[in-house]
Task: structure prediction
Amino acid sequence: MIKVDISNVWGQLSLPDLLAVEQEVAQAHRTLTEGTGAGNDFLGWLDLPVEKETEEMKRIQAAANQIRANSDVFVVVGIGGSYLGPRAAIELLQGCNHNIGKGKGNPQIYFAGNTLSTRAWNELQRLLEGKDFSLAVISKSGTTTEPAIAFRALKWMLERKYGTAGAAKRIYAITDPAKGALRQMATEEGWETFVIPPAAGGRYSVLTAVGLLPMAVAGIDIRQVMKGAYEAKVEYNRLRSFENPVWLYAGVRNLLYRNGKKTEIMASWEPGYKMMGGWWQQLFGESEGKDGKGIFPVSVEFTADLHSLGQMIQQGERNIFETMIRFDAPEQVAVVGSDAKNLDGLNYLAGKQLDFVDEQAYLGTLAAHVDGGVPVITMDMGALNDEKMGEMFYFFELCCGVSAYMLGVNPFNQPGVEFYKKNMFQLLGKPGY
Ligand code: PA5
Result:
């Protein structure tokens, strides 16, 4: 179980405050699981994790095996909730440089359709030159502009390379089971499809084919991911007190917000966590930021960002709190070497494990930030593996639903996202705008 440690928030809130909010958390959790709150037609994600491998999971694994066998590169096209989860998963477990040394048998994985940058597009084209590739196009609505543009071009490239019939065997569409342009195209062209359940919104879809197909192509054991998520579903919905880390996190962050802490900084100490931070940022930002309310979620990577945002966190406006993410030490250790000249003065660390140095940096930072008036929630995740990652996805989704209901907003809509689109469509001359 994920451990949420709140011993470093006591300077900012008291035990009576926390106890007073327990019934509110309980009510928010009930509202979510009983489906009586706003947006209750989007609760399908609550029951996505299952104990046994489903037929859909078997098909996902079979498709992944095929892609691994016939592709040097796998391109995943999507944006927002149809992009961040799979990228977060792969980078968390395999690092930001996961593509190095990969090819047929264990393909490189790139993401497209999450930008309108011509430079990024040209780079991808260069990358694909002379390579065998397959692609997954992910869009629940099937009409989102960024992925639609990228997909049109990539489909054209596939068809030039393999012919229409050959290309059709390399395109995997992940979309609504019945509605939308992508569903219609897939049916007409005979592409293999996977379903985003209508009752699971984009940012809550990582435990569907949206996340699972790219994970399986990357060689991640999706049965283990689902096992972790399933155990999280059982455990985090069973415990009905502050023993439940979901309750503790949702309760404390709302109390801090009410005490003027309007920004939450999620700090991890793993570069591979960066996209996971991005996934969390979207999950909480899009779910809570509405009706003039919401904790602003910011994700940082330490120690790198201690040299950019560290100053602001230590001495800037005191309207922030931090959530620090920690994992167990890695199995493979690295040790600081000794140097005869010691010109850099580092011999005092010779023989020490890098992870020990990292731990002292963490403890030093924690003490400094708490001294500086920043309440810090610590999440001890345990070992970093496939199963843990499944647990984390479910844990954060559940925390988000409970927390948003405490805040008094609908966690499952995103009406604000439409505003830029309307302006853009008008400027582009899209019919009807
Ligand atoms: O969380 C969400 O619902 C959004 O971020 C969507 O995932 C994003 O806008 C992409 O939408 P679609 O999957 O319909 O292309």
Notes: The mean pLDDT is 97. The pocket of 5-phosphoarabinonic acid is lined by residues 79-82, 139-141, 144, 147, 201-203, 286, 414 (CB under 6 Å).
